[in-house]
């Protein structure tokens, strides 16, 4: 029907939309087989306490490498997984695997807290509480070693339903963090209604936190909000010693980013537990005079 419009504008959009739809269709086809073909895996990015410099936890991040192709970035395939509902089995895989890894670390004498990204679909369209309970029972991992990362937009989709789920998760003993804080639609009034433990300052405010006064003001405001509400606060995307020192000076508890380590294989993270943390600690102490 685009021809009837005469100007070509519509066919241009049609083409773009077709290209996008085609890409999604291809990704969807591949993603549907990914679990069965063992193409999914988790990598772990260290999370560091800014006061002690110690690695206390790791965020589990999903990776997809199709058997006959290049790795696909989660920012491309997660939206497709969410739209198609494939995020439900994929999310269960992530939960299983993250708990199994937490268990392995525990058995090795390394009680590393594992953060798991949870999509809104899992909150609203699955029995997340029951899934976690079953996996927790099977693996015997203490719930306080598991943190769930949710986004503001997810929680705002249906505040009452989200609150019920979060209350149950809190009762079960899981840590609850808001991911990418400051980038979603949210109302500060709702912050107090959810039983949260942690706010995660989005990377977009961290990147230029040393050079941009607005970003610094926002980062400081988020730190203040978190502290006033008795939540912990972690900065994501910390790449330089300067960023880490500044955030620490302003009261940020924790950090995650390439400075401390890229997302890596679980064994690698265990091996790095002492060395890089110690290096980062020395850096921080030199920069900000200890304490
Ligand atoms: P996120 O949860 O905010 O994860 C942080 C992202 O920032 C990761 O990208 C990580 O590799 C990247 N990152 C960490 N430190 C730095 C840094 O210092 N500099 C820069 N430039 N980037 C850094 P990744 O692994 O590509 O994941 C992208 C997003 O995909 C995640 O954002 C999350 O929203 C989603 N995702 C990943 N794994 C899962 C999963 O298992 N389930 C769900 N539902 N979503 C996931
Ligand atoms: Mg996250
Ligand atoms: Mg994040
Ligand atoms: Mg992010």
How would you describe what is shown here?
The chain contains 13 helices and 8 strands. The protein has 291 residues and is an alpha/beta fold. The protein has an 8-stranded mixed beta barrel with strand order 1-2-3-4-5-6-7-8, surrounded by 4 helices. Strand 5, helix 8 and strand 6 (198-201) form a beta-alpha-beta unit. The structure holds ligand C2E and magnesium ion (3 copies). One magnesium ion (MG) binds at residues 180, 202-203, 236. Residues 24-277 form the EAL domain.
Sum up the structure in keywords.
single chain; 291 residues; alpha/beta; eight-stranded mixed β-barrel; 8 strands; globular; binds ligand C2E; binds magnesium ion
Quantity of strands, as a count: 8
Shape from CA axes?
Answer: globular
- Which structural category fits the helices and strands? alpha/beta
Mean pLDDT: 91
Strand content: 15-25%
Number of helices: 13
Q: Strand order of the main beta sheet, please?
A: 1-2-3-4-5-6-7-8
The helix fraction, in percent, is 40-55%
How widely separated are the two ends?
69 Å
The profile of the biggest β sheet is: 8 strands, mixed, barrel
Q: List the uncertain runs.
A: none
Order of H and E elements: HEEHHEHHEHHEHEHHEHEHH
Small molecules bound in the structure, each named once: ligand C2E, magnesium ion
* Alpha carbon gyration radius: 21 Å
